[in-house]
UniProtKB/TrEMBL annotation:
PROSITE patterns for the chain: OMPDECASE (PS00156)
Catalytic residues of the enzyme: 98 (proton donor)
The species this protein was found in: Streptomyces tsukubensis
SUPFAM superfamilies, sorted: Ribulose-phoshate binding barrel
GO molecular function: orotidine-5'-phosphate decarboxylase activity
Protein name: Orotidine 5'-phosphate decarboxylase
Matching Pfam families: OMPdecase
Catalysed transformations (reactions): orotidine 5'-phosphate + H(+) = UMP + CO2
Enzyme Commission code: 4.1.1.23
Keywords carried by this UniProt record: Decarboxylase, Lyase, Pyrimidine biosynthesis
Gene from which this protein is expressed: pyrF
Family according to the record: Belongs to the OMP decarboxylase family. Type 2 subfamily.
Stretches assigned to the Orotidine 5'-phosphate decarboxylase domain: 19-264
Any GO BP: 'de novo' UMP biosynthetic process
Length: 280
């Protein structure tokens, strides 16, 4: 049986649970502020609390792989368990791995995150196209076959990204626009939207790019990096309904109290709902 495409699953999750992607980023400073040690036991406790508080209510959970990898195999075991439990509780899991490599190695990354028999099998994964969009082909194909998604970095939230992403290619487009055009071609006219998403920082002020890719637009940068939900219409314009705002530290700093985490996530979800209501 063909699996339901990620774009359709995400659209439903955003429409029913609200458009929020909550990050699970176990920074050592956050572990300490939660009264936990910066060790595997602290990581496990932190992660379990996030999943328990949020997986049954937010549309998407985005664990940042690096914070788990830094503890080696025992950190990865915590991540594997979190992915499984979060998916069981109804959240879509977007693995923030930002992988990008030559095609043959990309196939191994695809097998890691997008093969249903892998212990880290996730609903979607973040990838970097800056080895050339075509290098992502193994991940794009694996995602399509498994009903998964791929979020491709386009215009990142950090100020350093512009020197690469805003530079121009010979036909006058920016590098980021070339990537966005590839994403639009991948998504075609899929309904309700395609499964290839773009990452576009909420911090950008004005994206200055054509974001009409018929796919989701992951918008990190809200909260700790200074952007707010109210900035989203200015950045995304007519593509606002495709936007999936990501908040990590802005929610996590309200832990370890489960109710505190839930209230923070609900407030963020309500804020994006209010922004969408004002910009129908
Ligand atoms: O792909 C991402 O998620 C991402 C892309 C980007 O351009 N900027 C960005 O901040 N992120 C990630 O989004 C999260 C933002 O975290 P907070 O700043 O704590 O909300 C981190 O996990 C980043 O790695």
């Amino acid at each position: 049986m063909t699996p339901e495409p990620f774009g359709a699953r995400l659209r439903r999750a955003m429409d029913t649970r609200g458009a929020l992607c909550a990050g699970i980023d176990p920074h050592s400073s956050l572990l300490r502020s939660w009264g936990l040690n910066d060790d595997v036991a602290g990581l496990e406790r932190f992660t379990r609390t996030c999943v328990e508080a949020l997986a049954d209510r937010v549309a998407v959970l985005k664990p940042q792989s690096a914070f788990f990898e830094r503890f080696g195999s025992r950190g990865l075991a915590v991540l594997e368990k979190a992915v499984e439990e979060a998916r069981d509780a109804g959240a879509l899991v977007l693995m923030d791995a930002k992988r990008g490599d030559i095609g043959s190695t990309m196939a191994a990354y695809a097998a890691t995150y997008l093969d249903k028999d892998s212990p880290l099998f996730s609903d979607a994964v973040t990838v970097s196209p800056y080895l050339g969009f075509g290098s992502l082909r193994p991940a794009l194909d694996a995602a399509a076959a498994a009903g998964c998604g791929v979020f491709v970095l386009a215009l990142t939230s950090n100020p350093e990204g512009a020197e690469v992403q805003r530079s121009h290619v010979s036909d006058g487009r920016t590098v980021a626009q070339v990537m966005l055009d590839h994403m639009a071609a991948e998504n075609g006219d899929a309904r309700p939207m395609g499964s290839v998403g773009a990452v576009v920082g909420a911090t950008l002020g004005d994206a200055g790019a054509d974001l009409d890719i018929n796919g989701p637009l992951l918008a990190p940068g809200i909260g700790a990096q200074g952007a707010t939900m109210a900035d989203l219409p200015g950045v995304f314009g007519p593509a606002l309904r495709q936007v999936l705002p990501n908040v990590s530290r802005g929610v996590l700093r309200h832990g370890p109290d489960i109710a505190g985490l839930r209230t923070a996530a609900e407030r963020m979800t309500d804020e994006i709902g209010a922004v969408l209501a004002r910009h129908p």
